[in-house]
Amino acid sequence: MINLPDYMERVKSAKLRVINEGYYTDGAKIVVHNFEKNWVKQIVAEDIKKGNYRIGVVVDGSFNVCYIGRATDQKLQDRLLQHPEYLDDVYYFDFNSAKTDDEAIKQECIDYHSFGEKDWLDNEYHPSLPEGDECPWDGCEHVGE
Q: What are phi and psi of 132, to 5 degrees?
């Protein structure tokens, strides 16, 4: 069970910093969680098997995303914890569950483009897609191989 005072110390309300609008509104208010191992385990339910996440920093009240990811073949909690380089009191995360692999994959593509692609993100490459699937982002020609 989450302790409310502890929870309030580990979350922040922030304005979402969007590089390429079209899906998200720049400056939309969101709540982000401190990216600590024990905190991830408390906040992200173990039974969430598919979903997306964003890891970033809060600067001057804005959540600046620096990494996006998804879970389709493992639990979302486990996938988040595969980023020890971000497990620090400087980083925050948010997440959402998905009903299907396809939903999680498409959302990751949208996040990749919305938050600045490899120019702004630590992600070096466009998210992988199943063979023959096309990226849902208008103007992106990435197709799964």
A: 85, -15
Residue 15 lies in a domain: yes
The number of residues in the chain equals 145
Per-residue H/E/C for 91-112: EEEEEEECCCHHHHHHHHHHHH
**7 pLDDT exceeds 70?**
no
Residue 5 phi/psi, 5° resolution? -60, -40
pLDDT confidence tier of residue 118, bands split at 50, 70 and 90: very high
Phi, psi torsion values for 107, nearest 5 degrees: -65, -40
Domain count, the chain: 1
Is there a contact between 136 and 106 (Cβ–Cβ < 8 Å)?
yes
> Quick check: is 88 in a domain?
yes
Does residue 52 contact residue 104 with C-beta atoms inside 8 Å?
yes
Whole-structure pTM value: 0.92
